[in-house]
Amino acid sequence: xxxxxxxxxxxxxxxxxxxxxxxxxxxxxxxxxxxxxxxxxxxxxxxxxxxxxxxxxxxxxxxxxxxxxxxxxxxxxxxxxxxxxxxxxxxxxxxxxxxxxxxxxxxxxxxxxxxxxxxxxxxxxxxxxxxxxxxxxxxxxxxxxxxxxxxxxxxxxxxxxxxxxxxxxxxxxxxxxxxxxxxxxxxxxxxxxxxxxxxxxxxxxxxxxxxxxxxxxxxxxxxxxxxxxxxxxxxxxxxxxxxxxxxxxxxxxxxxxxxxxxxxxxxxxxxxxxxxxxxxxxxxxxxxxxxxxxxxxxxxxxxxxxxxxxxxxxxxxxxxxxxxxxxxxxxxxxxxxxxxxxxxxxxxxxxxxxxxxxxxxxxxxxxxxxxxxxxxxxxx
Length: 380
What we know:
Blueprint: E1 2-11, E2 28-37, H1 40-47, E3 54-57, E4 63-70, E5 73-75, H2 91-96, E6 99-102, H3 107-137, E7 147-150, E8 153-156, H4 159-190, E9 196-199, E10 209-214, E11 222-233, H5 238-244, E12 297-305, E13 312-314, E14 325-326, E15 331-342, E16 348-354
Antiparallel strand pairs: 1-2, 1-4, 3-4, 4-5, 6-16, 7-8, 9-10, 10-13, 11-12, 11-15, 14-15, 15-16
Helix pairs in contact: 3-4
């Protein structure tokens, strides 16, 4: 008797993954026994009813991998044509990836870039004031170091320019948040009816998605509707990562994970690394929030403008991705997004989770499409 095991390994990009070196972070590994078998053929027959092996990324970068091992040998499922795995959606899908969503105010993204420029100006100004005595000693003309009295204190006149630059983005962010809260209240009072999606044929990861779309209710303020589908990898459950990396829940987090933030994370939802940063201010009476959080590894398929009475056919993402896979460590998630352009108050999104079958073709994705974790950068 030889044991057949399912091996899951993951190194998921933290929030703002561009700031991290992947190879410096640990890989979480889980081994699950699928039973003991008398022969490789018997194990192979059992494995053919399972989903295929999956590897996205590589050991030196971000990694999502599922494989099977029979004794000391790796073994592959053979006949898994159009295999659809039937695990239930993780809690993060029910809470944050279905239903109506708003688009954050574009001011948030603009000001984030502006703040980076303000910091550079501030540092240059401080450096200029620091070396100004040397410039004066060398008889080099200097400007902006004469003093200006504000209240009881004297400040360099350069502060008249720099200080407003520092506070202006903060004031604008407050105004943008207030506008967002007003839009959220307005949307709640509207009470829109959900669109109806009819799937013409089963969804497979390397085949076009074909649907019929109807709107039981059409608002006169809507201009047009675009439909797209996409796939990505959702964050693993934080408690599962802690377990596989040998940490207790209250211990110091492993590298790449942040300390748990109250009110921004709950068990089974995600890895808890983006609390308080992934979305602008939201009303707390809507579970999951008003803004769609982007998957940090994500690829988009085709998109099409909706026309009433006509079917929609969307090409699959390229290269070929695995189908739906839902465990507490590896979560390959597919969704259909309906974007409604409105005359006022920004675009509106309807998100429909999809159960997608695996392709019969081999998945080979080495260069992962990484995305920032902020909702303001998700769908333009």
